[in-house]
Fold:
Amino acid sequence: MSDNITVRGFVATEITSSTTPGGVATAKFRIGSTERRYDRATNAWVDGNTNWFTVQGYRQLAGNIGCSIKKGQRVIVVGRLKLRSWEKDGRIYHAVEIDAESVGHDLMWGSANFIRTAANGSATAPGPSGSPPAFPDGSPEGGPLEDQGHEGRDEDDGPASRTVFVDEISGDVEELDEETGELKGAAA
Structure:
């Protein structure tokens, strides 16, 4: 049985990124979720207990967490709940973990600018015609990218690898400038 959970809270630690011995990317952080309730006696909102969770993300999600989430930000986490207990020196310890399926900013507290990564082949959204979005060269999302002419190619190595992003609304494809880390053609 899998216990799914959705938690709204604040990121309490810096993001810790690593790689498993098998080469799988991981990202981990702690989230605090504080109960809020209205106290009629004082006519004010008051904080209740804070529940603490360790959130663990893998693969593409881990990379996106590392790029997007920062300590202190409000987030929403959806994932599988795991409870662990152990005994040490006569004391029993408990840990509550979430294997994250989705992590995103809580837009109740601010705004965000979403950039879809084209490398995510596990969940391709259909384009306006109902078919998967295509890159300018006509290849499907996640497929090989080939340039016209010699631009972007190494003489001996064939096509150079590129990182591109797909705009969710317009479907426009923009290339990442590896030197500056900014999108080429993005408005300044």
